[in-house]
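ok so i was messing around last nite and threw this chain in just to see what happens. nothing serious, just curious
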Amino acid sequence: MKRYQNLILLALVAALVVIPLLIVKAPEPGPDGEEVEIFEGADNQAKDLITEIVPDYHPWAESLLEPPSGEIESLLFALQAALGAGFLGYWYGSSATRARLRQSGEKKA
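result:
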């Protein structure tokens, strides 16, 4: 039963992250008509430089989900990093514990 409780809690946490992303709208453009960006990352800078070098360039792929703002994009990046770190930490900890239990079992035999 504990396993299902953990899966349910994990699904609820994922829902708490995804639902606000779907509800939040993009901020209104600024007074000059340009899109408001609080955080402008390297992706946007690279896109601007490419269009400056080759003005008729069009990307061959588009994002599946376009976050409404830079803050949400940062949140998704941080969430991805946290999930990756959690997975690696869990894997390393369980591997080390498994090896330690195997060694202690060999010493007893």
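not much to say yet. The two ends are 34 Å apart (CA to CA).
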